[in-house]
Specification:
By secondary structure, this protein is mostly helical. It has two helices and no strands.
């Protein structure tokens, strides 16, 4: 086995959300940074495991921000569907 074993689909934490938080630089779906995402397949299993260990702490604040964003969007959509006379 090589240092860079082929990835199985379960090895990636990607949730197919792919939207980045500008403040933290973390993805709202998986919690990784753009560099961690871009170089994921080039990292060793140990490096990937180290990143995976960080994600549970990154996700709760991202989920809160994502829900706030979604609630603002819903308000804006309601306003657009009910235009003032």
């Amino acid at each position: 086995m090589s240092e860079h074993d082929p990835l199985e689909p379960i090895d990636s934490p990607c949730q197919l959300v792919c939207s980045m938080d500008k403040e933290s630089g973390h993805c709202f779906g998986c919690g990784r940074t753009t560099d961690e995402i871009a170089y994921w397949t080039l990292k060793t299993k140990q490096e990937r495991d180290e990143i995976l260990a960080l994600l549970p702490a990154r996700m709760p604040p991202l989920r809160i921000k994502l829900e706030e964003r979604r609630s603002r969007r819903r308000v804006n959509k309601r306003r657009r569907t009910n235009p003032e006379p």
